[in-house]
Amino acid sequence: MISIGKVNKKFGKFTALNDLTLELELGKSYALVGPNGSGKTTLIKTILGLVIPTSGDITIQDKSILKEWAYREKIGYMPQIGRYPENMTIGQVFEMIKNIRKHTGALDEELIQSFELEKMYGKRMHTLSGGTRQKVSAALAFLFNPPILILDEPTAGLDPVSVEILKDKILKEKESGKLVIITSHIMSDLDDLTTDLVYLFEGDLIYNDSIKNLKKETGETKLGKAISCLITQNKCLTELITS
Ligand SMILES: Nc1ncnc2c1ncn2[C@@H]1O[C@H](COP(=O)(O)OP(=O)(O)OP(=O)(O)O)[C@@H](O)[C@H]1O
């Protein structure tokens, strides 16, 4: 579905993505993990067309995304911090985005309902709590029923009930065959939601395989522990082999 071919991104002399090659498939959900500054957001922005690679190509359904815009309709994106016209109400933001998209298919308003956002349609964006803003961003990401979902720290700032609502929704969409990419520093969420791990370090792709395999290779049952093994230079792998 998404094919990333030798993508390199330099900011001046600094290499943020180093010849990354990666295939992302429908029906899988990917945990995009790495330390701060490892290139996760740069990779997401490159897929979204907001950052232009220095070299390499990205194709979606075998079509290059470079100099192409229409493909973005296939992606639902939930940013870490949603930026909206601050004087508009929640209801106006939804209406505006629906008008811009001119979407002809059915809308997925499940999250609007589960988060009870309609009750807050009259509230202006600048008055919202961080969690309510996250709910608006989540509801917008799913609204047009896109086959690809890119969710940047989706559960950050949400209350426990809302976290479970969003996690159930993500799982449901993944099970319906969508491609989901999630960045998060909350390993337990990723453990619940994702099937595959893409681990970046200083712009290099360090791991790209199923979480099931990672757990098997490291002998760990929890994703957080398995990743710790991976980043402590395969210490656990050596321990497993020698034990
Ligand atoms: N526009 C830019 N100009 C210069 N350097 C940039 C730019 N955008 C990102 N970088 C650098 O690229 C590197 C990767 O940044 P990126 O935001 O992709 O990291 P990240 O893995 O998402 O980090 P975090 O976990 O902190 O969100 C960082 O060193 C960052 O300073």
From TrEMBL:
<dbReference type="Pfam" id="PF00005">
    <property type="entry name" value="ABC_tran"/>
</dbReference>
<protein>
    <submittedName>
        <fullName>ABC transporter ATP-binding protein</fullName>
    </submittedName>
</protein>
<feature type="domain" description="ABC transporter">
    <location>
        <begin position="2"/>
        <end position="227"/>
    </location>
</feature>
<dbReference type="InterPro" id="IPR003439">
    <property type="entry name" value="ABC_transporter-like_ATP-bd"/>
</dbReference>
<dbReference type="InterPro" id="IPR003593">
    <property type="entry name" value="AAA+_ATPase"/>
</dbReference>
<dbReference type="GO" id="GO:0016887">
    <property type="term" value="F:ATP hydrolysis activity"/>
</dbReference>
<dbReference type="InterPro" id="IPR027417">
    <property type="entry name" value="P-loop_NTPase"/>
</dbReference>
<keyword id="KW-0547">Nucleotide-binding</keyword>
<keyword id="KW-0067">ATP-binding</keyword>
<keyword id="KW-0813">Transport</keyword>
<dbReference type="GO" id="GO:0005524">
    <property type="term" value="F:ATP binding"/>
</dbReference>
<dbReference type="InterPro" id="IPR051782">
    <property type="entry name" value="ABC_Transporter_VariousFunc"/>
</dbReference>
